[in-house]
DNA sequence: CGAACGTTTGAAAATCGTCAATGTCAGTGG
DNA sequence: CCACTGACATTGACGATTTTCAAACGTTCG
């Protein structure tokens, strides 16, 4: 679960979604020049957080940007009306810490033990002046996030909870961290409440829908946190 | 059919949302250096489109990025299952033309007559090499769009259509292009179908909800496309 | 063991989508 | 000038999915 880190700091910035050829490696990570990595490393501070602990609070002064080396982070936004919407799950290689007016826009909590790296925003800004190439990398990242965000929107706007859930399971199955391609078993890192908050529904509906999908033989429950997926079946459900 | 262009090209790039002081002017537009504007102008091509005409099609090769000088654009995404979700309305100063794998991710249609400027993507990329500052401006823009996108998500995930509609009206009231602060009258430039597609509901529900809001005296219909808003009341509804 | 938490299940109410019909308005052509 | 047409908007009735409220069930952990 922890990064091997052959070099003192291996910075894997995942370009969520896909980008044209020459900016990412085979694993979908940005290719950073040696000097860029060196410059970034100089201002990088490793930070380990345990599962179920907050990393940043919505509304706090945004001092840092975070990069995930291992673990999963949930980003949630509290509305004025008391609702809490999960805006994204962040995976290894993701950057997080979106800010507006120098305040964090969302709260971020560790779902699992996490191995993070944090960069001071001012220091990053300064780096941009001396390392122009770095800006481009962050631009690619920002646009990738934009696509991800849109994908989440499209997921959440499916009218039937069944479709939203199917889409969510498919999404998770694309994360090597929690899907075993061999057995077809998906490990759910988050609890029902989090799934509900991400899919914009209720715990009860999530629970019922899991049951419904199981009856339709699209998934098989191993236990509450482990399900075997019929990916083709789920994808068919989604496009129907 | 051609741009009026008082100056050869006045490039207003709106930093959607808000950004810290020194990168935007009082109107919320990015401050571009003279040489940046000159460089951009060199590759800028004015383009005028009439209301209700397509600008780009989802899936087409993404050759350009567009900047809106005047008019309103709707960006919509066709799902495999036939659903069409409006992903954003773009206003003057906005950039649009999000791409993935060099293909447009969404279709864009002009809602009103539009005065656009288009930049060739390869030319832009080339510019980034010679004008490092420009990349930063686009980074700011991308992040601003990210915030906007999240706001749309939060809007759409309100459970009650009433709340979504209220949020939408408030959002529109922040566009000087369609809200008259003096009279409090909002001009809806999009039809009910588009509003429904943006709010993830149906034409009928939108229509009914407008009626419901009117009964609750939160809005007054002048005609189908013009409503007087009780902004405080609408905001109260949203946070309840 | 018991408490706390997460998950599941049940039953009832409510919102919303669907289908269908009607209404309104602008533009067209006789 | 008026009927006609088509696009858009509204209204009604119905059914269905989903939320809500409650309670039971299982696990984990002190």
From TrEMBL, chains A, B:
Signal peptide positions on this chain: none
Gene3D superfamilies given in the database record: Jelly Rolls, Winged helix-like DNA-binding domain superfamily/Winged helix DNA-binding domain
Pfam families found in the cross-reference section: cNMP_binding (PF00027), HTH_Crp_2 (PF13545)
Domain of life: Bacteria
Residue ranges of every copy of the HTH crp-type domain listed in the record: 159-232
Start and end residues of each Cyclic nucleotide-binding domain: 55-97
Keywords: DNA-binding, Transcription, Transcription regulation
Name recorded for this polypeptide: Helix-turn-helix domain-containing protein
């Amino acid at each position: 679960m922890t990064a091997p880190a052959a070099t003192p700091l291996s910075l894997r910035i995942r370009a969520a979604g896909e980008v044209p050829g020459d900016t990412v490696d085979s694993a979908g990570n940005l290719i950073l020049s040696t000097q860029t990595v060196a410059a970034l490393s100089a201002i990088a501070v490793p930070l380990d957080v345990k599962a179920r602990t907050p990393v940043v609070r919505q509304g706090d002064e945004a001092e840092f940007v975070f990069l995930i080396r291992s673990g999963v982070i949930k980003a949630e936004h509290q509305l004025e009306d008391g609702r809490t919407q999960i805006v994204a799950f962040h995976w290894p290689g993701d950057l997080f810490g979106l800010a507006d007016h120098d305040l964090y826009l969302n709260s971020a909590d560790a779902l699992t033990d996490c191995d993070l790296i944090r960069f001071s925003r001012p220091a990053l800004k300064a780096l941009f002046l001396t390392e122009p190439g770095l800006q481009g990398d962050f631009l690619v990242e920002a646009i990738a996030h934009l696509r991800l965000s849109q994908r989440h929107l499209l997921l959440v706007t499916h009218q039937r909870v069944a479709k939203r859930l199917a889409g969510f399971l498919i999404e998770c199955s694309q994360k090597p961290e929690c899907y075993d391609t061999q057995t077809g078993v998906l490990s759910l890192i988050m609890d029902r409440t989090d799934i509900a908050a991400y899919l914009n529904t209720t715990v009860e509906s999530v629970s019922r829908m899991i049951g419904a999908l199981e009856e339709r033989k699209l998934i098989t429950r191993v236990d509450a946190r482990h399900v075997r997926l019929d990916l083709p079946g789920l994808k068919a459900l989604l496009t129907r």
